Amino acid sequence: MKSNDITAILDELCSIYDQSVANLREALADYCEAGKHPDPKLREEGCFAYPELRVSYSGDRTSGRLTRAFARLTSPGTYACSVARPALFRDYLRTQLEHLVKDYGVEVSVGKSRSEIPYAYVLDGSGINLDEVTAADLSRWFPSNELSHIGDEIADGVWDYSVRDARPLALFDGPRTDFSLARLKHYTGTDTDHFQHFILFTNYVRYVDEFVRFAIDELRRADSPYTALSVPGGYYDREHLTDAEAQIAAGTWRRHQMPAYHLIADGHVGITLVNIGVGPSNAKTICDHIAVLRPEVWLMIGHCGGLRPTQRIGDYVLAHAYLRDDHVLDDVLPVEIPLPAIAEVQRACSKPRCWLPAATRTA
Hints:
The protein is α/β, with parallel strands linked by helices. 32% of the residues lie in helices and 17% in strands.
């Protein structure tokens, strides 16, 4: 399908993905119930494939100097990426494509990619009984997770252009995105659909307690833009707030390595808080996975490396950069190079109450 009708493009992405999921679930059910193997010919034709989004840019048109840090093309050519869960990323994809079509005059096409959806990612809610089969059996006949095919070559700058027929259109392809979405659910104990565009990280439970109190108070306000609070093992809307704070404190969050709490607003413009625990490995892991959700802002709260006599408990401190003694990034960045805070975040935070969208501001 080739078109610059963004709505039609997104509909086609969702249609291909939904059909592939349906095909995979049907084949899994046939195998588990009757031992029927999937047809290799149908697999070659892409019956289990992720959809692919492809953009062709001739280089003949730009709308002048663009200062934004997204939806940019640096050279003519064809760009492509397999897409997982297109319905989840529909608003994000719409924004990117609208800019590309308007500013670069690109031609957009949708088809089936060469990557198949691993069977593990379609089992939730399928009702398929796996009691009589093993993971080894399923991996023999169905696409499965291959960690050798999941990586960050694009973000790390080691993408091999010589063996690809197109430039990367996104940092994360379908398998990498699905892998991270599954890990987020495992680590945080919450549905990935509940993550909001504004992310806070902490490793102090008292910040979680304060966030929960704030969220419940917001939901009790008749004029609040927030609609619900999602926590590990629970979901609280305006009609179910009786004793909510005590229920959340006694809930299942201890079962999860990095429990998350989502104060939900329409359009995903609410706030997510993740208690990442202690240690740089947790911080790196959760950032690697949350990155696929393309959040607008993420901030770590609760830390201050060195206090001045003028500072008090509760003051907001924004570091210009930090030196790394954790060695997590030593293989990609020399240890003597400090990591600066994002300039846009520093500028935004210098103007209190002006950088969040209206739906996330509070009195």
